[in-house]
Specification:
- By secondary structure, this protein is of the alpha+beta class.
- Helices cover about 30% and strands about 10% of the residues.
- It is built from two helices and three strands; from the N terminus they run H-E-E-E-H.
- The chain has a three-stranded mixed beta sheet with strand order 1-2-3, with helices on one face.
- The longest helix is centred in the last third of the chain and has 29 residues.
């Protein structure tokens, strides 16, 4: 369920206070724990360190992000690949074949010169 339109968007006042009167180019990363805070047009160009429960993940605010929440861009779960040992063996073989192909291309280029 979305927030009532008569209330307006929720923008954390502490976040607004941190960016008030500052320029995005001179300001570094602004740390915040306010994941529910909506991104407003005043935040354009700033980089926020949004807490994900363990550490702060840097989020650079662009025009497309306006209206979304800060927490949407700071994932709380880390994806670990599927497949286990078999998948790892396949990836190693693929990487080795890529290296061999690259060496073959370099050898062909050197022989042409």
């Amino acid at each position: 369920m979305t927030r009532s339109s008569k209330k307006g968007p929720y923008v954390d006042p502490r976040v607004l206070k941190k960016i008030e009167g500052k320029k995005p180019s001179t300001t570094g990363v602004i740390k915040t724990w306010a994941r529910a805070c909506q991104i407003s047009p005043e935040m354009l160009g700033f980089t926020f360190g949004v807490h994900n429960g363990k550490d702060h993940i840097e989020v650079f605010v662009t025009e497309d992000m306006i209206g979304h929440r800060l927490g949407e861009f700071s994932l709380t779960r880390k994806f670990v690949k599927h497949g286990g040992k078999m998948q790892k063996d396949l990836e190693i073989k693929k990487k080795e074949s890529e290296i061999a192909a690259a060496k073959a291309v370099k050898g062909a280029d050197a022989s042409k010169k």
